[in-house]
Amino acid sequence: MSFPKVFEPRTFRARFATFWSDFIRANYRNPEEVSVAFGVTFQTALNWWNGANRPSGDVVALAGRRFMDFMEGRG
């Protein structure tokens, strides 16, 4: 992934829940499908769907290349 020359980790962290929400909305039909795909509770999937919180690194790793491609397309 390419980042601007000045990368602000705090800003990225603050925006990550929105990035994740955009990704799962683009790739899954609903929170139920997200719950099954990532092995999390429906409430967790719903929170991600709504951008209320972000996943941990292991979940992002499960998303694999598709998430990396999604993020590269944002910049």
Q: Which geometry do the CA atoms define?
A: globular
Total domain modules: 1
Give me the count of strands.
0
The major sheet is characterized as:
none
Tally of alpha and pi helices: 4
**Proportion of residues in helical segments:** over 70%
Structural class: mainly alpha
For this structure, the quaternary state is single chain
Strand content is under 5%
Low-confidence stretches: none
- On the 0-100 scale, what is the average pLDDT? 91
Care to describe what's here?
The chain is globular. The longest helix has 19 residues. The relative contact order is 0.19. Helix content is 71%, strand content 0%. The protein has 75 residues and is mainly alpha-helical. The chain has one domain.
Labels describing this entry:
globular; 75 residues; mainly alpha
Write the topology of this structure.
Elements: H1 9-27, H2 31-38, H3 42-49, H4 57-74
Helix pairs in contact: 2-3
Question: Outline of this structure?
Answer:
71% of the residues lie in helices and 0% in strands. The chain is built from four helices and no strands. This is XRE family transcriptional regulator.
